[in-house]
Amino acid sequence: MRNLCLLTCMALALGLSACGGGSSGDSTTVTTPTPPTTPVSPTPPPTPSSTANQVAITVNQGLSGQPDTPNVSVTICVPGTTTCQTIPNVLLDTGSFGLRLFASSVTIPLPTRTTGSGTLTNCAQFGLGTTYGSVRLADIKLAGETASSTSIQMIADPNFSTAPSTCSNHGALVTSPAALGSNGILGIGSEPIDCPGCVTNASAGAYYNCASSSSCTQTTAAAALQVTNPVVNFPQDNNGASITLPSVAATGSAGVSGTLTFGIGTQANNVLGSAAIYTITTYAASAQYYGTFTTLFNGGSNVAFVDSGSNGLFFNDSGIAQCTISRGFYCPASTLNLNAVMQGNNGTNSSQNFSIANAQTLFSSSVYAMSNLGGTETVGYFDWGLPFFFGRTIYTAIDGHSTPGGSGPYIAF
Amino acid sequence: MKSHRWLWPIMLVCLVTAPVAHAALGGNAQSVQADQASMGAARSSAVQMFAAVQGAYTSQSLTLPSGTVVHEYITAGGVVFAVTWQGSTMPDLQQILGSYMSGVADAVKAYRLQHPGIGPVSLSTDNVVIEAGGHMGVYVGRAYLPSALPAGVALSDIQ
């Protein structure tokens, strides 16, 4: 590898060009310098709101027939105008932060987010896939809520179709709704922005300053420029959200409908009630494990997270047969009844029973909502995906935002 | 090279400013050591490495500037047979998968057409197994060469 660098550098030197790999020191950051990341100051207690704050969720065949995929419709507008478009089938994801839409799904002229002399582009990773595209500004409208002039990612933007290698080397480029199974991703997880570390670190491979469509250099990105969880940009009901989905029978369902509700303890329809609060790790506490808590399973302790964007319960149990066709999913001969203990950082804990059915049987039975779909995850990690949401209301409170149950981040149910 | 002495300062700068590089899956131990020395000298403030001998294999840990930790597992015969990662950013898969990257990328695309979405991925192709999960800001995964696993090494050791 070093020889390759030498050859490359020699070639560059012979061409009288500058050399260096682009990993550090050569980014031309033109954004206004910002102070190092500081924890978001807790916001004042939520004020009562009467804004319409609920959006319908559907878990059905959707765009692609991918099971356990919760979709919502999102309205975007050119900022400050009535030029708007409603985009259906956007994946509702508590495991990411910010709105991402395929350029092919967007028909209105959203302005790009500029940084100094260039255009800001964004690169994000999802399960060995990478989304790349320009950062655009939109008014995001969900029910009666509006996140004004908020940064979103325009995936596969034809104006910036060449992903820098430091982006595309992080995963296979996702360029069409067919590969995602949705027209985009609505990330409403526990952080306000998609890359807290990028405020000071330019080499994360997440943000680029593009002088032209194919000339992009890695850059830092101030929090205000980054792809932003739209919830935090609402004038009210902005401390988190909850997802309510009905129970699903063991044999699955062709489709179910639920509700996404904005705000926690801000209106009569989003009170915590008896929900137990499980605090999760803040970015300030750990840049490596933020958004996670603990789950005990099979005698081991796991880094755990609750993620509506994961379409199954994913954990490591080498004793469960894997599917031969749908690799990565579990295919036990008969349904397994299992148990794990969820443990918040605040000590709240509960025993959770769950079932894992034969995924191949489920996949072949024309159902799209499955309460017992599971698969493998890296040893030491436990992903409570969409099956865990069925029959519950699950709240996600945002880092640094106050709620009647304390400051986020936490999950509660 | 006599007539190109002016090149040497430029090449030296290139070495010092080269991207973080390390041995790829299937690569050899010599390249690991060379890269380790190079990186340790050039990026000592940003890159920490250490090695531990675990019987039939050696493991190395590399902490990227983002904080992401990459472990590389090397057989006694000097072949990198597994890599793992955990951290707030994905590692450069091209670097750690090397010649397997192209096949893996194709397999991921094919997998996503069968299983669209953003959940964990587990697939096997071209003699390599790759598994990845986590969520935005917490990425975790591993890749290994089943045919190169030293005798007696359990998959649960690779993490």
Please sum up the structure shown.
The complex is a heterodimer of chains A (413) and B (159). By secondary structure, chain A is mainly beta.
Explain this structure.
The complex is a heterodimer of chains A (413) and B (159). Chain A is mainly beta. A seven-stranded mixed β-sheet of chain A has the order 20-19-16-17-22-18-21, with no helix packed on it. A six-stranded mixed barrel of chain A has the order 2-3-10-4-8-7. A two-stranded antiparallel sheet of chain A has the order 24-25. Chain A is built from four helices and 26 strands. The radius of gyration of chain A is 22 Å and the shape is globular. The longest helix of chain A is centred in the N-terminal third of the chain and has 13 residues. Chain A folds into two domains: 181 residues, Cathepsin D, subunit A, domain 1 (Beta Barrel); 147 residues, Cathepsin D, subunit A, domain 1 (Beta Barrel). Chain B is α+β, with helices and mostly antiparallel strands and 159 residues long. Chain B has a seven-stranded antiparallel β-sheet, with helices on one face. The longest helix of chain B is centred in the first third of the chain and has 14 residues. The radius of gyration of chain B is 17 Å and the shape is globular. The N terminus of chain B is likely disordered.
Please describe the structure with a list of short key phrases separated by commas or semicolons.
heterodimer; A: 413 residues; mainly beta; Cathepsin D, subunit A, domain 1; six-stranded mixed beta barrel; B: 159 residues; alpha+beta; 4 helices; 7 strands; globular; disordered N terminus
